[in-house]
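User: Quick sanity check before I run a bigger batch. Here is a single chain. Can you write out its predicted 3D structure?
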Amino acid sequence: MLETAIVGGGLCGIALARSLQQRGGSFALFEARHRLGGRVLSARSRTGLALDLGPTWFWPDTQPLLTGLIAELGLSDFAQHDDGTVLHLKEADKSPEPISGPPLHQGARRLSGGMTRLIEALVRDLPPSSIHTGHELMRVIDCGTHVRLVFATSTESVAIEAKRAVLALPPRLLIDHVGFRPELDDATFEAMRSTETWMAAQAKVVIAYDQARWRDKGLSGNAFASHEQAVVGEIFDACDEGGDRAALGGFLAFAPALRETFAVGLPMLMDSQMVQLFGAELDGGEQHYQDWATERFTCSALDRTTPRGEHSEIASPMLRRPLWDGRLHLGGAETASHAAGYLEGAINAARRIERAIARAADAPVGARAGVALDEGLTGNEASLAWFAAWVAAQRDAAFDDYRQRLNRSLATQQREQLTQLAVLGAIEQVFAAALQVLDALTFDMRNVAVERGRSALMPEIQKPFRDVMQSLLDDAIAFNRTSCALSNFPFEHRPPKDYVQTILRDIAAAWQEFSLAANHLLLAKADAVRQPSGVSS
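Assistant: Done. Predicted structure follows.
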C-alpha cells in the first residue's frame, strides 16, 4: 500500500514529496491542474523575459527556509530594483507626484528566470511516475487503518488507498470541493472556513516593454494609484537582473466583480494608467494578465465574495493538528506556523508534516513515553536530549489544555481574562509535569558544577521551553481569531498589545518559578550523590 498520498502540487506538496523521496518513503503526488506550481506561475515575454504572475519575491532576512532551499538548489537570484523616484497618482485627472521614503521592497530578491525555476528544480528530483496531474480530489474516507481518496479525472473516477493523506491545499478549497467521511470536527471546520486564501481574489498584470524608459528618467518603476477610478493600485519594476529586458508588474485595484464587468476594456484601461504614470512611450506594451479569482483551484467562493481581512502570519493551530489518528494532515501555505500564505509558509508546512511522518515511522523503535531516543547518546547528554524531546512534544498538549480551559470559562459564563487565565493555566501544567519528568530522569551529578547556587545543567533544562512558551501564546492568539465563540469578546478575539504583554508577564513569572524549582531539584540530586542515603552528618 502507498505510504503517503499528497494532494496539491503547489510548493508545499512538491517540497514534501522531495523530502519523502530523499527519505526513501513511498508517495504519490496528485494535482487537479495539468501543471504543477499552484499559485507559482511564470509567463514568458516575446523576448524570453520571465514574468511572474504569482509570487515574485523572497526576503532572506525573514524567510530562512525559502532562502536556504534556494541556495541548496543552486538557483541564482538578484535584488528587486528599487532605485529611483516613487510615484503616487492621487487624483484621476492630475499628474502623479513623487514621494520619498525607504526602499519599498525592504531587501526583497527575485529568482533569475522567474519563481517557476524553484518548482522546476524541486520536480527534477521526483520520479515522473509519482506525479499525477489532472486529478481533482472529490472525497477522503477514513478506513480505520488507512485512507481512501477518490479523484475525478477528465475520463473517469479514480480511487487510491494510502496509509496517510496530506492535503496541501488552501483550507477553503477543501470546504468547496472535498467531502470527508467522517466529517471533520466543528473546530477544525471553523478554522478552515475562517482562513483566507492569501492573494486568491487578486489579479496581477505584468507588461513587457522594449526598454526600461522609466529608469532613464530616474524613476524606480514603483508607483501607487489611490484614486477611486484606479485600475492598477500598486506597480513595481519587473525587469531582468541587468535591466536589458524590461517590464512593469502591478496588482489590480478592481475587486473581482468589477474586473469581470470591465473585462473587455481592461487591457486598454491598464495601458492608459501606465501612460499616465510613466509617459506616452509606454503605450501598447505586451500584457500578461492573471486573475486568480477566476481560478477554481485557487480561489474559493468565500475568498471571492468577502473583503480581505487582516492577514495573520500564524495560522490557526487547528489546521496543524494531525487528524484521524495521524492518517490525515492539512498542509499548504495557509496552515503554517510562520509566514502563513507565503512561499516561506508553504515550506514551513511541508517541514512540519515531514517531521510528523518521520515521528510516526520511527516511533516503534527506541521510543520511551512517546519520545524517540538517539541510541548514540549516553549519560547526562542522553537524559538532556530526552527531556528536550519531551518538552517539544508538549506543544500540542499545551494547546489542547488551553482550549479546554477556555471552553470551561465560556461554559461558566466568565467574561474577563479568558485568554490570560487559560494560557497561564496551560503553561503551569506543562511546568508541573516537567518537574515530575525531571525528577524521574537519571543524571550523573558527580562532575556537574554548581556556581552561585545554580546547577550547570540548568541552561540545557531551560532551553527547550522557549519555543513551547512562545508557540502556546502564538497558537492561542491565532485560534482566538478564528473562534466564533470569542467573536463577542473583542478583547479576547483579537487581544491588544497591552493584554498580550500582561499574558507574557504572567508566563515569565511562572517560568521563573519553574526554573527555581528545577534548579532546587537538580541541587537535591547533587546533594544525594555527595551524601548517600543512610549517611548522616
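The longest strand covers residues 157-167.

User: Great, the batch can go ahead then.
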